[in-house]
Amino acid sequence: MYRVTPIGTLADNLTYLVDDGTTAVVIDPGEASPVLRRLRERSLGLVGVLATHAHFDHTGGSDQLARSTGCEIVADAFGVVRQTSGRDFSFEIGPFAFRVLWTPGHSDDAVCYFVPATDDFPGAVFAGDTLFVGGCGRVFTGSPDMMWSSLQMLAALPPDTLVYCGHDYSLENYEFAVTVEPGNAEVKARLEEIRGLIESGQPTVPSTIGQELATNPFLRVSTPEMKQALRMPDASDVEVFAALRRMKDHF
Fold it and tell me: Which residues are catalytic?
């Protein structure tokens, strides 16, 4: 069974240590020292470093981890180095198997790592800065069309899939969502749930794909309710997404 441990790095990044009790991989190491400390505490051997994209806050600790442990950097500043002619592919490293989803939008090289469900693991997607709890990443070097297509790919994953994102922006995201749909009771309830988790010192990550489909405004731009909320009833999904993203950029 895989165990996923979120590790806070830098100001608000989330790095993930995935292990089977003996061996580990790390995803999006913004810095190395917190990861090395956790490896020592658990007597884990690191076999690989993965990154969802090349931004420094997701790769800053990669080289030091490789030097300190002798592990392989599977993804580096140039994107996924094992990528072949296909944009989605699977690979194994140590005992771990990942499906790589090409998800441009936040950046041209953005990928997500999907681990399918097993009898003792619900499945997980490491979404980097593509999908957040209650939100999505800014569109930098990609385009709204690219980002919307990437979000649709993630939305099609099984609903019980755990969503591990690159930053914890959950509170701000749902505060924004309530301003977009002030009459949406489910979104209001989710905001209160997030506030309760924070007040009790509990993490707001992970979420699930099903939970995001129900309350994340960026996954709901195709619904009549969201189009009506933005007064864009006849607009395309991409047009509504782009308008919503601009609103969030200035929130």
Answer: 53, 55, 57-58, 106, 129, 167
